[in-house]
Amino acid sequence: MGSQIGVTGLAVMGQNLARNIARHGFPVAVHNRSESRTKHLIERYGDEGDFTPATSLEDFVASLDRPRRIVIMVKAGGPVDAVIDELVPLLDKGDILIDGGNSHFEDTRRREKALAERGLHFLGTGVSGGEEGALNGPSIMPGGPDDAYAPVAEILTTIAAQVDGTPCAAHIGPDGAGHYVKMAHNGIEYADMQLIAEAYDLLTSAAGLSAPEIGQIFRQWNEGDLESFLIETTATVLGHTDAATGRPLVDVILDEAEQKGTGRWTAQSALELGVPVTAITEAVYARALSARKDQRTRASAILPGPSGGSAPDGFVDAVRDALYASKVVAYAQGFEQMRAASDEYDWNVDPGTLATIWRGGCIIRARFLDRIKEAYERSPELPNLLLDDYFRDAVANAQDAWRKVVHTAVDLGVPTPAFSASLAYYDGFRRERGPASLIQGLRDFFGAHTYRRVDREGVFHTLWSEDRREVSAD
Ligand SMILES: NC(=O)C1=CN([C@@H]2O[C@H](COP(=O)(O)OP(=O)(O)OC[C@H]3O[C@@H](n4cnc5c(N)ncnc54)[C@H](OP(=O)(O)O)[C@@H]3O)[C@@H](O)[C@H]2O)C=CC1
Ligand SMILES: O=C(CO)[C@H](O)[C@H](O)COP(=O)(O)O
Questions:
Q1: Which GO terms describe its molecular function (predicted)?
Q2: Which residues lie across from 470 on neighbouring strands?
């Protein structure tokens, strides 16, 4: 008997996934382009389970039971194609390739189609949880044909995080669905982290608190509605002291946020779909602005801000409430985007399933996800989370604090792009009538783009450069 599954690509994610699989009793073959990683895994962790190391892809494939199940855990982009190209000649019809990296969903759609033509199955599979999650139970989002998922379902659901006895792994839908929702998960992760960073900035710049003091505040917040992996991690990072300087570590980390692309892809796809995901997009822009360190340094010397001012009473609690309300908006936007993509690509993705499998294992895991799951149980076709009673009340209860925080930020010159964009979205969303009528009027004036009326059916144009009569443009 051979190995039930193989993992190729043994950097942090692949190594830990392979260990997770082995620890659950599944014999696993392991391979990496550079042999040193395979050696390291076997030397260090070989006694954790039934590993079969291979130095060549030929030996790796030969060591697998049929249908062969192969997890590819390499750098996203060209390396995935390179590995697939090397593997394909070694495989037989019905074998299953599982790309567990952060691949772009359009690449996944292309790969799935090309491999299907050769009789091979391809599962574009989002895996979240970082290094620790991969080892102890990630959230797993496979996308691809039912036939491909069935033979790997047992392994994936077993190694995933478990919440209330439910695995944080589920078949998301066909072709690119799994990688799409992983991308959107990361987009929400960007928004979540940006909101946390803005809260930290407000408590530093407006309230004058130190990093360890703010860490304590986050620790308290983690006992309430905000309880989540990212809030808990924020408390830990803010409380950590740099050994070299004795200062809070966060004060000596360079303030330039890097990005690998999934947040940007989420915003790009949202633009294509016409879904307003303002919190996610502002988070991507905020990282881009942070990376312009040289320009910011020059600007800081010459561009004035407001002089003086301080945070009002009750500011810390207000920031907590504003953070929660903004987070609701960010998730509402992300979930609406996933629904729109599912409709566009005919994936039939169930948002309730996503809320269920993101309750554990992944980076955005949070108490909050239970509330989202319940909202979709109440109303599976819910178009926007803000229309659910629980979230409506949560945001309504927070709105005074939310406005106070954004107002204070503007007064004091503290940038809060995600807090502000979320509040503006909320105010735009709750308006039955907005100012887009004027935009339509302007478009009709300069480009004869026509408009519709509120009082009768049809399409109209005003003869602006003639006698300004309205004519039908149907
Ligand atoms: N790190 C994280 O927290 C998370 C990462 N991911 C995703 O999981 C995937 C793996 O991530 P991670 O473990 O961080 O590793 P990296 O993204 O750093 O990729 C390194 C791995 O890719 C292999 N590789 C690179 N180019 C090639 C190639 N041309 N042919 C064969 N192998 C190649 C490397 O092999 P070699 O050792 O020979 O260089 C190594 O095993 C990525 O898509 C990542 O985005 C998903 C969730 C979380
Ligand atoms: O997928 C992940 C977690 O779910 C990775 O941690 C992600 O790559 C982080 O993205 P970025 O480097 O762009 O911040």
A1: NADP binding; phosphogluconate dehydrogenase (decarboxylating) activity
A2: 462
Extract the tokens encoding 104.
């772009």
Does residue 129 have a known ligand-binding role? yes
ipTM entry: 0.98
What gap in Å lies between CA 428 and CA 53, rounded to an integer?
A: 57
Three-class DSSP labels, 168-201: CECCCECCCHHHHHHHHHHHHHHHHHHHHHHHHH
The residues annotated as belonging to the active site are: 182, 189
395 is in an annotated binding site: no
Q: How far is the CA of 72 from the centre of ligand 1 (A)?
A: 9
Q: Is the pTM of this model over 0.80?
A: yes
* DSSP SS3 for 214: helix
Pocket of ligand 2 (CB under 6 A): 102, 128, 130, 186, 189, 259-260, 262-263, 363
Q: Which residues of 214-228 are buried (b: 16+ CB within 10 A; e: fewer)?
A: bbebbbebbeebbeb
Structure confidence by residue, pLDDT tens digits, 209-249: 999 999 999 999 999 999 999 999 999 999 999 999 999 99
- Hey, what long-range contacts does 165-169 have (CB within 8 A, 24 or more apart)? 166/356, 167/357, 168/137, 168/138, 168/139, 168/140, 168/356, 168/357, 168/358, 168/359, 168/360, 168/361, 168/362, 169/139, 169/140, 169/141, 169/142, 169/357
pLDDT, tens only, 313-334: 999 999 999 999 999 999 999 9
